[in-house]
Amino acid sequence: MMQSCDTLYMNSSGSGGIFPAIAKNKGFKDMIGTLEQLHIIDVNNVQAKVLDPVTIGFSKQKQPYVIAQAANKQRADEDMDVYAMNNKGRFCVARHANISQEDKEAKNDDGNLTYRYGNVNDFVVRAAFLTDLNKESTKLFNFALHTEKIN
Length: 151
Known about the structure:
Layout: E1 2-4, E2 7-8, H1 18-24, H2 26-32, E3 37-41, H3 53-62, E4 66-72, E5 82-85, E6 91-94, H4 101-105, E7 117-126, H5 127-132
Antiparallel strand pairs: 1-2, 3-7, 4-7, 5-6
Helix pairs in contact: 1-2
């Protein structure tokens, strides 16, 4: 995204930095306002399916604010941030380095890791949600679970 004819917008806060950038920038909001949804992928995610038809179709059918794709962790020692619920009852990404070894190894009654949904930085976000963002936004995400077996 161009800031001017010879300058790129830069954001050192990772893929999540798009949200405050949109909240602060009318140009971003105006551009996004012409869309139905936006597919946000981290540049490090080489396995992401750009505009994956299954994900896009799921989004159109269920209409969640955000779809956050995840990889199912098989081992506790996999160096991957995971989706969790914080102490305010909101979904968040828990940094691998900040999770205790005990929590990393914790398992549910079904034998799966408790914290097994690894963040792959692949999101489909409704444009209307993004254009409603502002600096004080406290809107809760309407999460919908999308599972797909990856071979």
